[in-house]
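Re-run with default settings, no changes from the original entry. Doing this only to confirm the output is reproducible before filing.
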Amino acid sequence: MNVMDHIQAHTYHGRKGAVENAFRYSIDYVLLDPKSKLRSAKLFSRNRFNLFGIYDKDHGGAVKAGRGTAWVENILQAGSLPGTSKILLLAQPRILGHVFNPVSFWLCYDDRQDLRVVIAEVSNTFGQRHSYLCHRDDLGVITAQDKISAEKIFHVSPFQPVIGSYKFCFDICPNKIEITIDYTREGGGLIATLVGKRMPLTNISMIKACIRRPFGSRRVLALIHWQAVKLWWRKATFRSCPDAPKQDISR
């Protein structure tokens, strides 16, 4: 069965440390199998302009040169990792042709429909991207109770250093998704969450989303820059953007 879900979610970011800051806003994600023939609402397209859409080049590898599911399959095969039976993409869609995904997720399932691997695809506002390969040390089924660690090696915010570590938690259910990223460093860090119900992607759901959030990911970018202004005003330490890691993905 093809998966084509609309997640009308909320994201929360809470800064840890001496300079506190927190915000919460609504956001639209879609969950789909990019390899399947899409039997979706007329206002959604793949690799074609529409109200909502997903482009293969936006995901799976370098920015604007993504290879989609083929990239994920190569990662799994090179690492002898499970999860090749079904690969789903959880991402913000393009809305009227524009998109910016601070983080999207590849969800990789085995033939028993158990989640075994997640790839968190992180992009910053400087045009860079890096992905984190998330799985249990024993390659077992990922549950909501698991906390999967990764070393931070990619610049995301100019108000956080490229040190410390992440703990990822994934609670992916038939009726909802809940993802938590806990970034910890000496003296600070950040907690970010993405929470929302899974519902069918329909023309009505997309139209309602555009009425509630008419600027799509442009609104997300504006909110990111507004939070940056607030942190600058509070005299949080600003750091220039270094070169991105040479490798696409790390553990």
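Residues 4-235 form one domain. The first strand starts at residue 4 and ends at 17.
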